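Page 42, continued from yesterday. The earlier attempt failed because a stray header line got pasted into the input along with the sequence. Redoing it now with the clean sequence only.
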Amino acid sequence: MTSDAALARRSRINDSVRERTVLQNQVLLGSIVLLGSLVILAIQQARDIDALVLGMGVVFAATGAALVVPWNRFPPVVSAVIPAADIVAIAILRYASPESGLGLLWAFPAMWIAYMYGLIGTLLAVSSITVLFWVLIATNPGNQLTATTLLLPVAVAAVATIAYLASRRSWAQRELLDKQTRNLERSVERARRQEDIVTDALDAVDFGVIRISPDGSLAVTNEAHARLQRARSKGAEAAAFGADGVTRLLADEMPLARARAGELFENELVWYGEPGDDSRRALSMTARRIQDVNGQDAGTIVISRDVTTEELALRAREDLVASVSHELRTPLTSIIGYLDLALDEDSLTPTARRSLEVA
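This time it went through. Structure tokens are written below.
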């Protein structure tokens, strides 16, 4: 994968994460605000109904925008409008009902901004929430300074910090996964190229290659093996004969069946086709064990080579030698017999006898 493709992929992932975060956080916050506002109205805890309705309206408007607007088409900073609006809306809701505890909802936009915008976003979110909180405290003389009011900004800051740290771990893991994905894709591409080279090399040779897995299944066959299969006569597996060409082989005596059973052999000659059939073929087959890079059993490799021409030539030579031997044996025997009779003559001169012995 090229660097441009990796950057494009990373950008798509970031856009998808941002859009999903906008939608999930805002829908959850809108649901809690709706439930909390209904409870406040039911128990009549609202100090300012108009402010409560205004805060709800801002939250619901932001929720609608989160549902409708395609945020992945805009720069990341644009989507920060939603949590900023939520911070203001929660401040209005807290002003409308100080005793309801709606200020705790500031944790939602704080976490959102911290997660999406890093350390700067975390500082801005916590600072703006703290300022709004103390402004509300200062403008409401009836509020008493308690441990709860003092710890609320600290709690929001802690939650935002946790979200920021979680985002860093998440992005680091995503970067690691992305790097591992690229490495895996490169490895797969390299393996595919090597497999293509091996396949082309196997298809270029004129002998058949069959790889049998340890479980006995056929894993690899090359084009030459397919050609040899097509060259066999119909029903070749049933019409297979031994090296003499006349001894029929049983099903479990077939070279492929023996190799699947784990048997190893070297240059095993098998004739395919009935005796006297001009289309019968002779194959020399070899089965050898192979191992993987860890030295474990990787199955068996079976090599088959068409030796029909060589076998026919060898048999023709043997027939010629036998024929010539048969044709010469009778006259040579007669000649030797007559020479022996001639040597038995006592009247032969020494010179004639030596000539006959040489003959």
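Notes: DSSP finds nine helices and six strands in the chain.
Reminder to self: strip header lines before submitting.
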